[in-house]
Amino acid sequence: MFRFRRYRVFLAFAVFVVLALYKFGSSNSSWRDRATSFAQSHRENADPQVKWEPNPQVAKETKQFGVEVPAAKNPQVKETPPPIASVARPAKKTSTSEPGIKSIPVGVGVGVGHAALDDLQSSSLEAIHWIKSKEQYPVLTESLIALPTAKPKHIPKIQAEFKKETDAEKADREAKLGTIKDVFKRSWSGYKEFAWLHDEVLPVTGSKKDPFAGWGATLVDALDTLWIMGLKDEFEEAVKAVETIDFTTTSRFDIPLFETTIRYLGGFLAAYDMAGKKHEILLTKAKELAEILMAAFDTPNRMPQTYYYWQPDLSSNSHPASNRVVLAEIGSLAMEFTYLAQLTGEDRFYDAVARITDNLEGYQNHTRLPGMWPTYFDASGCLQYNYNTDVNKPLQKPITAKDPGWEEALKNGAYLKADPSKPLVMPAQDDSAATAGEELSPDGKKYIPLKKPPPLEIVPNGPNPTWKPPPEESFVWPGDAKVAPQKRQLAAAGFPSDPETTALKPTCDNPGFGPSSSGGREEYTLGGMSDSTYEYLPKQYLLLGGQVEKYRTMYEVSAGVMKKHLIFRPMLPNSDDVLFSGKRFISEAEPGEPATTELEPEYAHLTCFAGGMFGMSAKIFDRPKDLEIAAKLTKGCVWAYNMTATGIMPEAFEGVACESRKNCPWNQTLYYEILDPDHENRQTQYEEGMKNYEVRLKSASLWYDEAMQAYMESPTPTPMPISVKTGVALSAAEPTAAASSPLDKRQLTDLEYAASPAQNGGVDVDSEPADEEDSPTKVQPEVEDIEEPIPSKVMPTFPAIYSPSVPLSHEEFVKTRLLEERLPLGVTRIKAREYILRPEAIESVWYMYRITGDPYWRAAGWRMFEAIDKHTKTAHGNSAIDDVTKTSPNLNDSMESFWLAETLKYFYLLFSEPGVVSLDEWVFNTEAHPFRRPT
Predict the structure, then answer these.
(1) 351 a catalytic residue
(2) How far, in Å, CA of 448 to CA of 633, rounded?
(3) Which entry of 200, 509, 523, 840 is annotated as an active-site residue?
(4) In the annotation, is 651 catalytic?
(5) What are the pLDDT digits (tens) for 876-916?
(6) DSSP codes, 192-245
(7) Keyword set for this entry (predicted)?
(8) Which residues pair with 600 in a beta bridge?
(9) Model confidence over 650-660: pLDDT tens digits?
(10) Is 896 a known active-site residue?
(11) Pair type for strands 922-924 and 877-878
């Protein structure tokens, strides 16, 4: 029966809620209007001078977010920008002291290319643009290292004398050329359709990305390939598109100096020269870009910031070079800036990279592996010791207000006489008479001597202070405001970390290089982070016509160390006579102890360039023995291509290094030992485990026997019923409720609990007198006693004891590992299984064919091409793959610009006539851009 008194409160509340919902739900707009009117009336009454209006409705944004790029106003097809990548940096607004420059949030996102900014025209925000500012650490005219302009020395020929091909050979070669060209055209079409003016196309999904500042990396990188393949219409179209690139802005916070130099600057210069120097826009764009990159060299020791923070409010601050630079990133700029100096006649471009070479030369014999450089070192100039040798000309210290009349003289055009030993002078502002025989300025005025800053003192192997208090007139570093730099900022730049210092300017002007840290291991390699520095030594020698001998000396010293400490013969099942180049790790030596050295027998795809480098250097430096090393290094890469299921070399793998290069027989026992070095421990552990298992088994058996005996000897007692109320055992003669009731114990207990208030402490849960009609009806007589049986005695269970699993034998383990990891015989580990369309292997194959004329190299190259195209081909180009050891690898949807700039170019040149881009006329930078050798 429904008990109204108990639920009347809930009923009243429910009626109230229903009425409220009805009232307010049917008059939604009216009560909002009244609320608005009330609020407005209240505000106006409170302050008659303030007229309050409700907030306007916010319209949905229907326009695209955009930025106007001045250099991109030419009509072109609008493109949808890629998704903006999230970054870990906090979003903040940048500011600039330059008038008319508006800022965009710094957190817009790294990786969105500048070419995508033309899609963001509708935004009220404008892009930040780089602004050329006055150099803080200028190189004076008399201190510039001049570009050598003398007649080139005689350099031996590189290319072989080729025999005339037969008609059948020509037809076969041209058919292969056509196939390679078709692959290029498919990739170029995919880029043009889906990523035009962006850095790279995603060849699987037909999208785009901008990892290299968004200045159309693929477009610029492929210019000379278009010309070489005879695709002149496509070349002209690409050159026209180049005009829209604006190098003064990018969505990246920094400009990667190395990648920008080899891809963009090298691409412009090569295309300009190869096309007959008729497209002036290419050289113009190269100079525009170089002006920005040169700003990265404005450091106290003129060593570049390898990642240049270009935005005005960042670039205007003084910064030293990094105290932990990558060797390849600072040592692989020489060719591009030298070639730019040759084409423009401006020595400052050559000076910038010649100083790096001087420092490399000075540091070369002071490393832990003399003759080579570690992958990381300190280029900041904040060193205790300077390893620099003779520098062509001294670098001048920056000008300060302490030098009387100097800064003003620069503004008014100071005049420097031809003789740098004489003081700097400028024309007088008055018409004072000149003494007899006194030299006059071109306009007939006498000169006033000016104080000239002293040259930078270079102390070989001597102490050099890392900092000194700046003059009061100096501006504050790192910002314009006089605030104390943070400790971490100062420590990272090599300065004292006193937070009370308020006006510090970096004065780490020691130009030398040194170790990046005093402890840990240093890595020496021809692979990633080092490769192109060594490659550029003989190539720079060629580009300068042999006029700078130090490039040859530095290469020959390093080559001797490479052959002794890095190059090894791998142990292979067929005893193949090939060579690999590994890594050498050297730990810092303890006082009085020799340094710890270790060779890691790794072979990486990036290292495959070494065959071409050794081969070319063997010819130009007359080192015939090195030509044999070059052939074996290149054959090692060919072997690595042939060893996998796809016919493509993995990114990196390890093998077994033989002690001798002449005798290296296959040793299966040693190979198995390296693959399974713990087989003896594994067997020993199994035997010890079995002994332990037998002991536990015997102990458990004894316990079980005793427990069974006790079980058998101890009779099981007869269970007696127990009273629920009293807990006392009932006699067998007393009747139990369970015997007379069809309900089980739990049902009876529940009924007894519900029927008796005493079970709840004697209080009714309703807390109100119960009406007689509300009293529950008894459905079961009250139960007095319930039987609670005593459980029976359980028979003991034998303990669970597990024996150790039988291990695989040494041979079974090795075979299983070879199968599961898909390891070719001779390979002990594949460190990186992907292939990202790299060119280094085919690069050396092409060099060896041009140097020797041996058709073996063409046959090897064609097998490589077929394997690559088969497994990387997509509808819109070719894509990187995830695992070359699979028969059907997955596509990674990535096509870097070097696929068109290098890989396909080398394949095409391999089957071109030998005179096409002859090595006796051209020298290639590390991105395969040909620079004309001086004649």
Answers:
(1) no
(2) 64
(3) 840
(4) yes
(5) 999 999 999 999 999 999 999 999 999 999 999 999 999 99
(6) HHH-TTSSEEETTTTEEE-SSTTS-HHHHHTHHHHHHTT-HHHHHHHHHHHTT-
(7) Calcium, Disulfide bond, Glycosidase, Hydrolase, Metal-binding
(8) 583
(9) 999 999 999 99
(10) no
(11) unpaired
Neighbours of 362 (CB within 10 A): 21
Strand runs labelled E in 624-734: 652-655
Scored b (16 or more CB within 10 A) or e, 231-251 reads beebbeebbebbebbbbbbbb
The catalytic position among 172, 259, 788, 869 is: 259
Cβ contacts of 833 within 8 Å, gap of 6 or more: 650, 651, 882, 883, 884, 885
Q: Which two three-digit tokens encode residue 188? A: 């170029």
pLDDT at residue 589, as a whole number: 79
Peptide bond into 478 cis (omega under 30): yes
Task: Judge whether 185 and 878 are in contact, CB under 8 Å.
Answer: no
What DSSP designation does 758 have? Answer: G
pLDDT value at residue 591: 73
Name residues whose C-beta falls within 8 Å of residue 694's C-beta, 6 or more positions apart in sequence.
Answer: none
In this structure, which amino acid lies at residue 781? P
User: pTM for the whole thing?
Assistant: 0.70
User: Residue 613's closest CA among 625, 627, 599, 600?
Assistant: 627
Sheet with 583-587: list strands edge to edge: 521-525, 583-587, 597-600
Name the residue among 165, 170, 67 with its Cα closest to residue 117.
67
Report the pLDDT value the prediction gives residue 413, as an integer from 0 to 100. 47
Q: Which two tokens stand for residue 353?
A: 């990279």
Distance CA 826, CA 574 (A): 9
Is 634 within any annotated ligand binding site? no
The SS3 of residue 904 is: helix
* Phi/psi of residue 536, nearest 5 degrees: -75, -15
Ramachandran assignment for 746, one of left (phi > 0), alpha (psi -120 to 50 degrees), beta (any other): alpha
Q: Which amino acid is at 131?
A: I
- Whole-angstrom distance, CA of residue 830 vs CA of residue 489: 40
Instruction: Please pick, among 210, 221, 531, 626, the residue that the annotation labels catalytic.
Output: 531
**Per-residue H/E/C for 368-427:** CCCCCCCCEEECCCCCCECCCCCCCCCCECCCCCCCCCHHHHHHCCCECCCCCCCCEEEE
DSSP for 545-612 reads TT--THHHHHHHHHHHHHHHHTEE-B--TT-----EE-EEEEEPPPTTSPPPEEEE-EEEGGGGGHHH
Instruction: Look up 549 and say whether it is catalytic.
Output: no
Q: What is the pLDDT of residue 46?
A: 42
Domain range list for the chain: 467-507
Q: Give CA–CA dist 150/797, Å, rounded.
A: 99
Contact criterion met (CB below 8 Å) for 1 and 773: yes
Catalytic residue among 651, 834, 883, 902: 651
pLDDT (tens digit, 9 = 90+) per residue, 292-334? 999 999 999 999 999 999 999 888 888 899 999 999 999 999 9
R_g of the chain, CA atoms, integer Å:
41
Report d(CA 558, CA 392) in Å as an integer.
22
CA distance 238 to 281: 11
